[in-house]
Amino acid sequence: MILVAIFAPLLAPYDPYKTHLRESLQQPSSEHLLGTDSLGRDTLSRIIYGSRTSLMVGFVSIFIASGIGMLLGLTAGYYGKAYGALVMRFIDALMAFPMILMALVIAALLGGGITNVIIAIGISLTAVYARLMHGQVLSIKENDYVLASRAMGASNKVIMFQHVFPNCLPPMIVLITMQLGSAILAEAGLSFLGVGIAPPGASWGSMVNDGYKYLLDSPILSFAPGLAIMLVVFAYNMVGDGLRDALDPRLRGTL
User: For the whole model, what pTM was predicted?
Assistant: First the structure.
């Protein structure tokens, strides 16, 4: 899927944005393998270009969420006391709202467009990373090597970023990989609801929304992008599960 997104201009048989009203709603054929939509645009070409939108939203929003969340969790878990309690109560408040609902509200307030969708999904996923990082820091900062480093006069910054943070990374890497699928699914949901990628941008969620009006006549218009969403989310979950087994052999072979 990443290779498809990178080489989309070479793989797409047609311009995904050019309309041909005389060729609208054509059934799959040798000319258009997945048919055409209501504006005569090639469905396969739009799915190929839609992979760029989905993967960009997934990677950038996860980068934002993990960066902010891990920093908040690291500092809150290490310093604790009033600062830690304040940060974690804020995180608890964020976690009280379902992720997709929070992303929907933020995206609606900011307006459509890929940038605002990335911001909305990034903010809505921040709490998960902060909570996991906080728990990891609380257990690791009491280890003997951390106490020895503190006794030798190491600063808090050195202890946090040279001793505590590296040992918190394995579960965070697994979470990042598995949350990529959730971010892509959230983008598709927002686009389906009309607050995601603005037309005529190619987005799998908006393609499902456009195609459901023609389910009886051309079900491929919804099924094809829906299948693309399912496959990429499944793939990221499988990669995350593989990383979990690789980074923690105790969990190998478990569901």
Answer: 0.82
